[in-house]
Amino acid sequence: MLEINHISKKYVKGKETYTALDNVSLKIESGDFIAVVGPSGSGKSTLLHTVGGLIRPDSGQVLFRGKSVYKMDSHEVNKYRRKNVGFVFQQFHLIPYLTVYENIKLTEIELENENGSIEATLEKCALLPLKNKYPSELSVGEKQRTAFVRAIISNPEILLADEPTGNLDPGNSQILMSLIKEFRENGGTVLLVSHEAETTNYANRIVTLRAGKLL
Ligand code: ADP
Ligand code: ADP
Q1: Ligand 1 pocket by C-beta < 6 Å: which residues?
Q2: What are the residue ranges spanned by the domains of the chain?
Q3: How far is the CA of 170 from the centre of ligand 2 (A)?
Q4: Which of 45, 120, 127, 134 is at a distance of 20 to 30 A from 66, taking alpha carbons?
Q5: Cβ neighbours, 10 Å, residue 8
Q6: C-alpha–C-alpha distance, residues 94 and 97, integer Å
Q7: For 2-214, which CATH superfamily applies?
Q8: How many helices (H) and strands (E) does the chain have?
Q9: Kindly report the CA angle at 177 between 96 and 164, in degrees rounded to 5?
Q10: What is the pLDDT of residue 117?
Q11: pLDDT tens digits along 109-167
């Protein structure tokens, strides 16, 4: 479904150059749960952002169903970012002045989901009673579940998760991982990066990044 072909990415800051990805290739089949592990600074976030259409690699290609993401026109790549992939981040990235419901509605917009599907998904994630609360009123577990619902509300084919349990206690981590597992059991594909060993328990494949190289 997704093919990452020989991608490299360097960041230049002043006189310093940081190699984030060095000739990385990875094939992701539909239904895969791939965990990418590696120390901090090994390129994990850059890899996810590249796959998600957010960072253009210096060289190499990301192919989604055979189509090169970085050769799509702006309309197509926007559709890819909003419809084909869903993102969950360690820092949640909820919009503080929007409620739980509004944060989710924002990404669901224009996708013609039938009315009520947001409520149904909130219910499944034990968030329905909180739908009118603001992020500042939520516990960390609730914030991350909200971010998860936002990521999957448009039925993406692939969920990209960047250290999604990094700020969660063990109980909330387990709840989130069960939701991710359920997403996959319903036909979804997962690419998760983490340095926490327990999140990889659910993966059918574990790959390691070290200094931008995939081992
Ligand atoms: P990880 O997610 O594994 O911690 P990253 O992809 O965030 O790794 O970073 C990989 C390398 O690229 C690191 O050396 C990091 O310092 C560098 N890097 C990441 N983002 C930037 C940036 N915006 N500017 C400069 N260097 C960056
Ligand atoms: P956790 O230990 O998981 O971080 P919290 O103590 O933050 O949990 O939150 C416990 C409960 O209190 C949650 O249901 C949350 O919605 C509610 N809550 C937390 N902070 C606020 C707040 N500022 N205003 C209203 N409700 C809040």
Answers
A1: 11, 13, 18, 20, 38, 40-46
A2: 2-214
A3: 17
A4: 45
A5: 16
A6: 9
A7: P-loop containing nucleotide triphosphate hydrolases (3.40.50.300)
A8: 6, 10
A9: 40
A10: 83
A11: 555 555 558 899 999 999 999 999 999 999 999 999 999 999 999 889 999 999 999 99
